[in-house]
Specification:
heterodimer, A: 111 residues, mainly beta, seven-stranded mixed beta sheet, four-stranded antiparallel beta sheet, 11 strands, B: 115 residues, five-stranded antiparallel beta sheet, globular
């Protein structure tokens, strides 16, 4: 019973590099979300998806792109990483709109 | 402007005593509130929730109180245990059946329960 799995768990990028964070859920949830957590800021929504093939912007979408080609996967892309994107990224999924299940996070450092 | 605020970054409580974590919100459209607990190097896990039509919800040692007129909610943990030491996030959402409910989170409160 994996729940929500995020890969990788840690990554260091140089400014300008690109990368993709993968989120996979095995609970057949319709809704998936990407949040970032920064000190003193709580968790802020980057993008979300209400179903396969759909995506929408959250509170802080700039500099990120997402795709939901398969129901179980939600990918977060950074095309040209910036130091301001240094953060801990959490993926979550939900079925009923109320209860989120979170992954364990990806710690990204951009130098 | 933060719509959900947790003004206490940290709280220390003696084991066996009550822990009270507070949360204020500004958006009157919020109709569902949740508390999440987070241990280091793990994702947040759901703890307890409350709908805006209620003013109290209890689950074992955890009780959430909602004061809509004051736009304030609190989480009470009684009795507090060392294993409760974690960061607690308050979250809120507003309606929208058939669409994803986006949760707005507070900045979190680090609870330390001292043995």
């Amino acid at each position: 019973n994996a729940g929500v799995t995020q890969t990788p768990k840690f990554r260091v990028l140089k400014t300008g590099q690109s990368m993709t964070l993968l989120c996979a859920q095995d609970m057949n949830h319709e809704y998936m979300y990407w949040y970032r957590q920064d000190p003193g800021m709580g968790l802020r929504l980057i993008h979300y998806s209400v179903g396969e093939g759909t995506t929408a912007k959250g509170e802080v979408p700039d500099g990120y792109n997402v795709s939901r080609l398969k129901k179980q996967n939600f990918l977060l892309g950074l095309e040209s990483a910036a130091p301001s994107q240094t953060s801990v990224y959490f993926c979550a999924s939900s079925f009923s709109n109320y209860g989120y299940t979170f992954g364990s996070g990806t710690r990204l450092t951009v130098v | 402007d933060q719509q959900v605020k947790q003004n206490s970054p940290s709280l220390s409580v003696q084991e066996g005593r009550i822990s009270i974590l507070n949360c204020d919100y500004t958006n009157s459209m919020f109709d569902y509130f949740l508390w999440y607990k987070k241990y280091p190097a793990e994702g947040p896990t759901f703890l307890i929730s409350i709908s805006s039509i209620k003013d109290k919800n209890e689950d074992g040692r955890f009780t959430v109180f909602l004061n809509k007129s004051a736009k304030h909610l609190s989480l009470h943990i009684v009795p507090s245990q060392p294993g409760d030491s974690a960061v607690y996030f308050c979250a809120a959402s507003e309606g929208g059946s058939g669409s994803a409910r986006q949760l707005t989170f507070g900045s979190g409160t680090q609870l330390t329960v001292l043995p």
